[in-house]
Amino acid sequence: MKRQFLALLAGSLLSASAFAQLSVSEPWIRATVPAQKATGAFMRVQSAAPARLVGVQAEVAGRAELHEMAMDGQTMRMRRVESIELPAGKPVNLASGGYHVMLFDLKRQLKEGEQVDLTLQVQDAAGKRQDVKLSVPVKPLTHSAHAGH
């Protein structure tokens, strides 16, 4: 029994350290015009251990979702996805034209230069979930990420 407890404790510590090793770089949200009700959020996410991005929340939005842009025949379509795999040690780009975050039912205009709180919900291989809180800068309507991002 004591051995099982120690194994469980060690597993919990390893799981917690995996989340501590999640990194997010170059996050940004596209600014909006006054009556606009939706926008996108983009970033690069990397996890030291296998994990999945399973959700997102933002106080400025009535609804936030994970999305993917993909070709459907000759047409590019956007669709909601339940999760995004984060392979160990490999960066995953959330960018225009691929996986990204959509913020819907915006409660106000998002203006260039402000910071928006965003919470990523990540699940490790054991099924444990953790929130990763970010403060994300709002970039101009014309902003585009670096090549390859």
Determine the CATH superfamily.
Answer: PCu(A)C copper chaperone
Please count the beta strands (DSSP E, at least 2 residues each): 10
Question: How many structural units, i.e. domains?
Answer: 1
**What CATH architecture label applies?**
Sandwich
In the CATH scheme, the class would be Mainly Beta
Structural class: mainly beta
Beta-strand proportion = over 45%
Number of helices: 1
* Fraction of residues in helix: 10-25%
Written account of the structure:
With 149 residues, the chain is mainly beta. The chain has one domain: Immunoglobulin-like. 13% of the residues lie in helices and 52% in strands. It has one helix spanning 2-20, and strands at 23-30, 38-46, 51-57, 61-72, 75-80, 84-86, 92-94, 99-106, 115-124, 129-139. A hairpin with a 2-residue loop joins strand 4 (61-72) and strand 5 (75-80). Residues 1-19 have low confidence and may be disordered.
Summarize this structure as a short list of keywords or feature phrases.
10 strands; Immunoglobulin-like; mainly beta; 149 residues; disordered N terminus; single chain; 10-stranded mixed β-sheet
In short:
With 149 residues, the chain is mainly β. The protein has one helix at 2-20; strands at residues 23-30, 38-46, 51-57, 61-72, 75-80, 84-86, 92-94, 99-106, 115-124, 129-139.
List the helices and strands and how they pair.
Layout: H1 2-20, E1 23-30, E2 38-46, E3 51-57, E4 61-72, E5 75-80, E6 84-86, E7 92-94, E8 99-106, E9 115-124, E10 129-139
Parallel strand pairs: 1-10
Antiparallel strand pairs: 1-2, 2-7, 2-8, 3-6, 3-9, 4-5, 4-8, 9-10
